[in-house]
Amino acid sequence: MHRERSRFLSIMLFVGFTFLYVPIILLIIYSFNYSKLVPVWGGWSTRWYGVLFESPDVWDAVLLSLKIAVVNATFATILGTLAGLAMVRFGRFRGRTLFGGMLVAPLVMPEVITGLSLLVFFISLKQLFGWPTERGFTTITIAHITFSLAYVAVIIQARLTGMGNNLEEAAADLGAKPFKVMTKITIPMLAPGLLSGWLLAFTLSLDDLVIASFVTGPGSNTLPILIFSRIRLGLRPDINALATIIILFVAVLVAIAAVILFKQQKRDLLDQKMARMPEV
Question: Which of 65, 32, 64, 67 is nearest to 51 (CA)?
């Protein structure tokens, strides 16, 4: 019975990974297709990478998306960390339930509703105060921060709950000021969660299409919007080349994050072993 269950789970895992990674592998292979027709194989070639690098509108969209993603990830990490600290370390305070509900609302809200509400919000601001004068980098960044910080807050809450507050209380008992406890104890211990939250916010921003399409304006196309607009006119081989570069970029980021988290875990284990060693 146990062997049959293990075999079934192995088969389902194989099928799941097949549906997940085989399309990505095919996309990478067809990015080196010489033919103009994506489904027709015309031999190996890098011609579409050359076409891609000669397309200024693509690189304008890439640069805009990267700038938005970096600013969004940074501010979402800061705000999400503060929100997570408030939920875990500040105990019971008035309005905590409402605050927690508002914090997780973007996680369950349909993206269409979020994008539409933000569009109405920006239009109202322009009518009342004359700002924003145009929709683009600023409005997209604010929209992305709005939903990204909720994901970061969830990660930070989980990290804070798991690591406890014994070290922070010990430092406070020894006379450390709250700011010093935060900078010397809490933030270093939160480093893996902060890195995970930043990378998640960065990826969510780089991937967003629905919300960005509501709050952007003429001449401010992000990379997902540009790809979607081109796909609507038919599959193009240069899009496969662009997707391959994005996959490589994300893979490098994930590898760097994995190395950093691995080193942090080794450091934590070493600190725990040192703490358990009896004093001589």
Answer: 32
